[in-house]
Amino acid sequence: MPLIKLSGEFDCFFETLLKTNKIMKVEIWSDIMCPFCYIGKRKFETALSQFNHASDVKIVWKSFLLSPDMKTAPDKNIHQFLAEHKDISIEQARNLNNQVALSAQQNGLVYNFDKTIPANSFNAHRLSHLAKQHGLQDDAEEILFKAYFTDGKNIDDISTLIQLGVEIGIDENEVKTALENNSYADEVRQDVYQARQIGVRGVPFFLFNNKLAVTGAQDSSVFLNTLEKALSEWKKENSQSTTEIIDGQFCDTEGECK
Q1: pTM of the model
Q2: Cα 136 from Cα 4, distance rounded (Å)
Q3: Do the strands 24-30 and 205-208 form a parallel or antiparallel pair, or are they unpaired?
Q4: I need a labelling partner for 73 at 20 to 30 A (CA). Which of 22, 116, 130, 149 fits?
């Protein structure tokens, strides 16, 4: 089941609801190049599909940069990158990636690490923020994860990102202009700064109503239990007092006495 999405025309409406605590908020810090973030997305979606109050939830994706200074290297594969990054052999790196690919497969995902291009994810996060303005942020996250882990596309390449933006329904000229003009760079940096402020040390990181947090690609049951707990606390904080009426004999405005 896909995460709850907003159409552009209702986005402001939902933002108002969030500010007035009329809807639950789940913020997810992740990085496109994080294999456990894609797996965590699937597990969270499973939990959300089992949650009876999914319509009361607004999902907000937040940017996190695991390797902010990383140089995109189309001439390398991810095994080479991991070997150099961890100072291990190519074979050791391949074995580690194969273990992650198996975990992904168990969650219905296909990771083609032999095709994966090591790429800086900053521009991909900018596309996600653009998509957020159209209520398409979850679509952007999904297509970016798939492009990176399954299709072997360069998620730092502007022409590739324009194509992906168009595929999820954003006007080509708007995507092109935004990416070429460095739009939404400040939004990405703000997410990264906010993550540091609240102590996020790794991703995926799920924050429920600014109160409950889940780190890592936990089992869907953990996410479901946290959703239920967050809902319970949210209802307590936003419950409206009601007047208890004890009926007795009375006369109404129609002149009827009962």
Answers
A1: 0.84
A2: 10
A3: antiparallel
A4: 130
